[in-house]
Specification:
The chain is an alpha/beta fold. The protein has ten helices and eight strands. The protein has one domain (11-242): Aldolase class I (TIM Barrel), CATH 3.20.20.70. The structure holds ligand LLZGTKA7. Homodimer.
């Protein structure tokens, strides 16, 4: 079974590119360095399941297939069944899809993995995108602060039986206190001190995210945008190891 334990290596690199050759090169360079590879909407929309297979070599670390499904329960269940043969370690849905949709995703993931004799993927839910702040949330019709909405959706996700949530590292400490040690708390919005925030609005450093209780850190452009992605990832990991 793929090891999704964050304690061994918490960093999942976000491979966000339209270019298949570039994705393969990053994956090869980062295999053995990072704890996992995250493929999301950019890559999957361009290359689909065949692209995922091309990027995930035999030695590749666990796959987080970040497709953020958000639809009615029957449709999400179908999408989950469709990606199950790719053997992702983690898949996700939007928590705002509601309890029945999250249950449908969970059930489909378990049933299809069993049918295919594959390990069951962890199913987690996105709470509030890390690119949103309080005014952005309010503009969507949801009352701020973001933290309240994150707590509400995280509680709903765990109550629905999901394995954890995607949140910003800024919410992790509160969610650990709310939910305990079991749920995966997967955090994008992670930026080393020297990196630009870019379109991320709720960020912390990798060390702060881990110290707060994140189980997995999703880091994309600070690694893939570097001249030497493997070196950038090693620096982040060395920094994490050097801190108590
Ligand atoms: O709330 C969310 C959910 C998912 N993401 C994804 O994580 C990576 C972050 O990449 P960076 O380059 O480190 O910003 C990206 O693939 C997003 O789709 C997120 O950022 N926030």
């Amino acid at each position: 079974m793929p090891d999704t334990s964050a304690l061994r290596n918490p960093v999942f690199v976000a491979v966000d590119t339209l270019d298949l050759a570039e994705a393969r090169a990053w994956s090869a360079a980062l295999t053995g360095v990072v704890g996992g590879i995250k493929l999301g909407l950019t890559f999957f929309s361009a290359h689909g399941a065949a692209g995922v297979r091309a990027v995930m070599g035999v030695d590749a670390p666990p796959l987080f297939l970040d497709l953020k499904f958000h639809d009615i329960p029957n449709t999400v269940a179908g999408a989950v069944r469709a990606v199950a043969p790719l053997a992702p370690a983690i898949i996700n849905v939007h928590a705002t899809g509601g309890r029945a949709m999250m249950r449908a995703a969970l059930d489909a993931a378990g049933d299809e993995a069993a049918r295919l004799h594959l390990p069951t993927p962890k199913v987690i839910a996105v709470t509030v995108l890390t690119s949103l702040d309080d005014p952005d949330l309010e503009a969507t019709g949801v009352a701020p602060p973001v933290l309240s909405q994150v707590r509400r959706l995280a509680a709903l996700s765990v109550d629905a039986g999901l394995d954890g949530v995607v949140c910003s590292p800024r919410e992790v400490a509160v969610l650990r206190a709310d939910l305990g040690t079991a749920p995966l708390l997967v955090t994008p919005g992670v930026r080393p001190d020297t990196a630009l925030a870019q379109d991320q609005k709720r960020i912390t450093t990798p060390a702060q995210a881990l110290r707060s209780g994140a189980s997995h850190l999703v880091i994309g452009r600070p690694i893939t945008g570097a001249a030497d992605p493997a070196d950038a990832a090693r620096r982040i990991l060395a920094d994490l190891e050097s801190r108590p």
